[in-house]
Amino acid sequence: MPTNKKRVQGYLSDLAYEYLEKYRKQQELNSISSALEMLLESLANENSNIDKSNNSYNYLKMDKVNYFKRSQELNVPLRCPFIQYCERYAFSIYYLSYDNEKLDKDRKETTEDFLLRRYELPSDYHERKIKLCGESISITQNGDESHVQNLCPELSLFTDHACLASPKEAISSYTYSKNEGFKVTEHKHFSECLEFIRATYFATSRLN
Questions:
Q1: Among 53, 60, 132, 166, which is most exposed with the fewest C-beta within 10 angstroms?
Q2: Which of 135, 113, 138 is closest to 126 using CA atoms?
Q3: How many domains does the chain have?
Q4: In this structure, how many other beta carbons lie within 10 angstroms of the beta carbon of residue 143?
Q5: What is the pLDDT of residues 90-120, one digit of tens each?
Q6: Distance in Å from the first CA to the final CA of the chain
Q7: How far apart (Å, rounded) are the C-alpha atoms in residues 133 and 112?
Q8: What's the burial of 62, exposed, middle or buried (CB within 10 Å: 0-12/13-18/19+)?
Q9: Distances from the Cα of 48 to the Cα of 11, 30, 41, 52, 55, angstroms
Q10: φ/ψ of residue 200, rounded to 5
Q11: Tens of pLDDT along 149-179?
């Protein structure tokens, strides 16, 4: 166990460190390895649901029951422990609910500053945030069809920051058009997010 907390802070935020400290006290570190193994096995099982006849994916319904069940199977918290401090969460809120509102350029306002002004984020967000780790949020328009990818999956499941046609499921990617309506293209559990994986990896590597 490192005695100098600053050594850990160079790799992840205080929030991630605090979470792993609590996690370590509750369980042996090998439980994280077993959780990752279960995640890989689960992903492999999901991939086996591909319909070879038309290359379409038979997506499982990731409602609250199945979401919490997945968390229990992976031996992780029921919900993402970094949720309010994650950049993916913040950017997802802005793109889904405030994309038509302009930032204050005179004050060099960022997306996160805008959300703080709207009380969508905690006041200590900047000090404790988990940075986006790739798989950036993408929203593209093709005629009357919208393609949205890599959102925080907990928004559509637990909040009102979602497409009006979206079901209460953990949706990270979808398409929408007037003719075909709302279509889910990817469900996701928070344990699959790169931010969670990176934060827990660096924290456990420093705790060894």
A1: 53
A2: 113
A3: 1
A4: 7
A5: 999 998 888 777 787 777 888 899 999 989 9
A6: 7
A7: 16
A8: buried
A9: 36, 27, 11, 10, 12
A10: -70, -35
A11: 999 999 999 988 877 677 889 999 999 888 8
Q: Which residue has the tokens 């802005």?
A: 94
> In one letter, which amino acid is 204?
T
Q: Phi and psi (nearest 5°) for 27?
A: -145, 165
Question: How far does CA 201 lie from the centroid of its chain?
Answer: 16
Domain that holds residue 81: 5-207
Going along 12-160, which residue ranges are E strands?
A: 50-51, 56-57, 138-142, 145-149
Region class of 183: left (phi > 0), else alpha (psi between -120 and 50), else beta = beta
Q: Specify whether the CB–CB gap between 97 and 161 falls below 8 A.
A: yes
**Tokens 């790739």, residue located:** 134
Helices of type H across 48-108: 64-74, 87-93
Tokens linked to 179: 């003719």
| Cα torsion 10, 25, 88, 74: sign | positive
What are the backbone angles phi and psi of residue 171, rounded to the nearest 5°? -105, 125
Given CA atoms 73, 191, 46, 158 in this order, what sign does their dihedral have? positive
Highest mean pLDDT among 5-9, 165-169, 192-196: 192-196
The half-sphere exposure of 188 on its side-chain side, counting CA atoms within 13 A, is: 21
Structure-token match 């401090």, residue found: 85
Helix (H, G, I), strand (E, B) or coil at 100: coil
Q: Are 111 and 92 in contact (CB under 8 A)?
A: no
